[in-house]
Design goal:
The protein contains 6 helices and 11 strands. The chain has 228 residues and is an alpha+beta fold. It has 2 domains: 126 residues, no CATH class; 83 residues, no CATH class. The strands form 2 sheets. A 6-stranded antiparallel sheet has the order 1-2-3-4-11-10. A hairpin with a 3-residue loop joins β10 and β11. The chain is elongated and about 70 Å long.
């Protein structure tokens, strides 16, 4: 009886080891494929959820594969990251074992990309500073108006206009200085911000946004994607 128990434990250990080796191989294949398809600067971290992995592998279908991308992976100069969930991923076991994954059909992609205020500010022309203001954003920048260079500040709401992130400000004021009303009225529109978010990989489309203490989070989604 004792010998049988030891044998069962050994077999279970081998199965678990094989399961973990298999998931690592699959995660490496998916990471390489995503990096090529998305033309990324680096390979993302990949986590194939669910245990055991081998039952999913035999079926060739994975319910949830999660990607984590850093600013370096995305080719951003600073302050950005993204997390994407690939749902309904189809990868035959024979392709994984042979290291020949040429196409990965995915039912749905959903994720969130975090853009820090510093990153967005650095992509806008001029001396711009963005900070959180309630459920919106405060914009502070130096503008040229009526022959004068003045630094103004105003709060506004953030919205999506297609691929553009738009901040429409209201009630501009001088940033630490008194500014005549005539200059404020003439300069307020110059504080409005329009930032075109770079084209997203994997066919992802922008679906919403939210301001946070550190930046602006945008949600993304796509359906019926084939990584090839």
């Amino acid at each position: 009886m004792k010998g049988l128990l030891i044998t069962v434990l050994v077999l279970l250990g081998l199965l678990v080891a094989a399961d973990r080796v298999g998931v690592v191989l699959a995660e490496d294949q998916v990471a390489a494929q995503v990096a090529r398809q998305g033309q990324l600067a680096g390979e993302p971290d990949v986590d194939i959820t669910g245990f055991p992995f081998l039952t999913q592998a035999v079926e060739g279908r994975y319910s949830d594969v999660r990607l984590a991308l850093t600013a370096a992976d995305l080719g951003l100069p600073e302050g950005g990251s993204a997390e994407v969930s690939l749902q309904g991923v189809q990868v035959p076991l024979s392709d994984v074992v042979g290291g020949q994954v040429s196409a990965i059909p995915v039912d749905r992609l959903a994720g969130r990309a975090a853009l820090t205020y510093g990153l967005v500010s650095s992509q806008i022309d001029g001396d711009v500073e963005l900070t959180r203001e309630g459920d919106g954003v405060r914009v502070t920048r130096t503008v040229e108006v009526l022959g004068q260079s003045i630094r103004l500040t105003a709060a506004g709401q953030v919205a999506l206009d297609g691929q553009d992130l738009v901040i429409d400000v209201q009630q501009a004021s001088g940033a630490g200085i008194d500014v005549p009303d005539v200059l404020l009225e003439a300069a307020q529109d110059l504080l409005d911000v329009r930032y075109t978010i770079p084209a997203l990989p994997l066919g992802l489309q922008l679906t919403g946004l939210e301001t946070t203490d550190t930046g602006i989070d945008v949600t993304v989604a796509a359906t019926d994607v084939v990584l090839e």
